Amino acid sequence: MPYFRPLPVLTVFSALALALLLTLGVWQMQRMEWKAQRIAAYAERGAVTSFREALCGAHAGIFGPSITAPAPLAGPQLRYYALRGQPGWVRIGLMPAPACTPDEPQRYLFVESGFEDLDGTIIARPQAWRLEVFPRPGRFASGNDPDTNQWYIFDRDMMAQALDTDPGQVLEVWARADLGLPTSLSQTPPSKHLGYAVTWFGLAAALIGVYLALHIARGRLRPAARP
């Protein structure tokens, strides 16, 4: 039998570090698969030519279809802070939502009408939209300031009231500009997660190699003696 006398403290710390490295590697592989599935779902979502079809149709998948249709907005608009390659304001108005049934009460939909820089210059107007749930507030988001029309948290009730509309009539989704693959998927594609996983697994292998080499150098690990 090979001779092996492990160093107790080193063995404990090495085992903990190895478990952590392998866990990180497995997590990156899972993220890679998850993102690949999300990207495939986005590519297969299709397109519609009316907001009614997007709101009332039965669309399978994670992402709603791309909407290419006029978005008639009237009245004032809100300015919602966002990052679109640069900091700026998403302009948001209310549009009467098309009814899905004849007896359906009037509803309204928040719709993005443009993106402006911090100086107030419109630098992009949507050519297509997609329906999404309201954005979650960032961890360090500032509070809303309705008096100056500066919104940092997407608050349906407050925003509807600022536009003189009953919040109960506003849908719980909004139409944001469809600018292609969401940033959460495009910034770190699946290939990067694979690279991260290889790095973590490589570090795990290196840790094992250093651990064994140290024990061999100190005479605590020797192959079995030949009979």
Please give a structural write-up.
By secondary structure, this protein is an alpha+beta fold. The protein contains 5 helices and 10 strands, in the order βαβαββββββαβααβ. The strands form 3 sheets. Strands 4, 5, 6, 7, 8 and 9 form a 6-stranded mixed β-sheet that branches. The chain has a two-stranded antiparallel sheet with strand order 1-10. Helix 1 runs antiparallel to helix 5. The relative contact order is 0.19. The mean pLDDT is 91.
Overview in brief:
The chain is of the alpha+beta class.
| Secondary structure category | alpha+beta
Q: Over the alpha carbons, how many angstroms does the gyration radius reach? A: 27 Å
Q: Estimate percent helicity.
A: 25-40%
How large a portion of the residues is in β-strands, by DSSP E?
15-25%
What gross morphology would you assign?
elongated
Helices, by number, come to 5
Order of helices and strands: EHEHEEEEEEHEHHE
Name the poorly predicted regions: none
